[in-house]
Amino acid sequence: MVIFPTEKPQTAGPKKPMTCITRMTTAGHRHPVAVPQGRTRGTHPRTCLQCAHRSIRNTPMAAAVVGMLTALIAMLACAAQAAGLPSASQLGQQTGAAPQTVLVYEPHLTRDGEQVEVAYVGFPAVAVLEHLSGKDWRNRGDTVVFRALDGYVAHIPADRFLQDSAYLVFARQDNTPFAVDNIRQNQVDVPLGPWYLVWDNITNPALLAEGARNWPYQVAEIDHITLSNTALVPQGLDARFHEAVTLVRTHCLTCHKVNGFGGVKFEGNLAKIAKQTDETDFLRLLLTPAATRPGATMPALPDHLPESERHRIARIMFEYLQTVPTVPVVP
Ligand code: HEC
Asked: Is any ligand 1 atom within 6 A of the Cβ of residue 317?
């Protein structure tokens, strides 16, 4: 990967009208991308999480309410410490650091193993964490949480930031709109700002194989927590479900919640939904969301896995979600 200081500090700049990013990113690149049938335009859903973000910024009362909720959720996680992210220019001023250009293979644009290089502009994630949470950020929890405006929540092990190079980026280097197509989610022109977490995957096959799993976009807030598994693995849960717990955490809980733990891109408790859903329908949704719901933005279970493995995974997830007792969660 090439990292070099950009000549002048860059900011996201005035918003340009959105055009099809696919055409731009693939111009001169390796594969022309046709917009598939049924593909929806990128959306920017407003969720109550975003209201919470606004409230945190705007009113002390709302901040207190959000604080109480955070405290309730602390039965799942301890040592919660939220930090709203400053703008790129504020961050540059506060840290005195110039933004860097970061070249990555953009996992949201990967199709049939073809990689598309994109150059972004941003700051090393560790420097941002140190600035926001102090030099001892690593001691604040075993997990760094990235909350996005669209309700997506990424839980990333803190040690990953010490092993691999991550960057929080805020613009494209060529000043084209800061947006991307999310091929697996059937969305085009998805806005990436205010912040997007990217990884130096060009020389790192292990990172490349992970795809877009730890690449949250629209990031507005960072937290440090230590995860406790009690909501997902209540006492007495049969050990044969442990694999399913890990799979559900990896593949589902960035967007959904189980017993209050996870993202809020789609509201509801998966443990409850599964108990009200027929197994065949549930499996069909996980394996081919778009066939089940036209225009679905939910990604299918990874299609690089053999079909029998995708079915096995879907089945054990369903069985686990049917079995795990639902815990009432304070809204
Ligand atoms: C990137 C976000 C995302 C991920 C990851 C995700 N989903 Fe979804 N899910 C959605 C969205 C959004 C919907 C609503 C339908 C749509 O737009 O696709 C949904 C709908 C559902 C529904 C239907 C709920 C209802 O009440 O109708 C179920 C069940 C479900 N998801 C289960 C899962 C499971 C199990 C996983 C993990 C294998 C998963 N989802 C992974 C975003 C996601």
From this structure: yes
Closest ligand 1 atom to the C-alpha of 289? 18
Q: Give the strand pairing for 261-262 and 100-105.
A: unpaired
Annotated domain spans of the chain: 84-225
Tokens of 177: 């709109």
Alpha-carbon separation of residue 251 from 87, 186, 214 (angstroms): 30, 17, 11
Could you tell me the end-to-end alpha-carbon distance of the chain, in angstroms, rounded to an integer? Answer: 44
Look at residue 328 in the predicted model and tell me its pLDDT.
60
Residue 35: how many other CB atoms lie within 10 Å: 13
DSSP state of 158: T
Which residue do the tokens 């598994």 mark?
Answer: 229
Determine which residue's CA is closest to atom 19 belonging to ligand 1. 298
Q: Which parts of the chain sit beneath pLDDT 50?
A: 1-80, 330-331
286 lines ligand 1 (CB under 6 A): yes
DSSP, collapsed to helix, strand or coil, labels residue 81 as strand
Q: Using CA atoms, how far apart are residues 56 and 54, in angstroms rounded to an integer?
A: 5
Gap from CA of 283 to ligand 1 centroid (Å): 12
Q: What is the pLDDT of residues 56-91, one digit of tens each?
A: 233 344 444 444 444 334 334 433 457 789 999 999
Which has the closest alpha carbon to 241: 277, 282, 273, 271?
271
CA of 286 to the centre of ligand 1 (A): 8
In angstroms, the CA 113 to CA 189 distance is 21
| CB neighbours of residue 162 within 10 Å | 9
Is residue 256 lining ligand 1, measured as CB closer than 6 Å?
A: yes
Select from 245, 222, 5, 37 the least CA-distant residue to 130.
Answer: 222
- C-alpha distances in Å from residue 103, one per residue of 55, 119, 128, 136, 165: 35, 4, 19, 28, 12
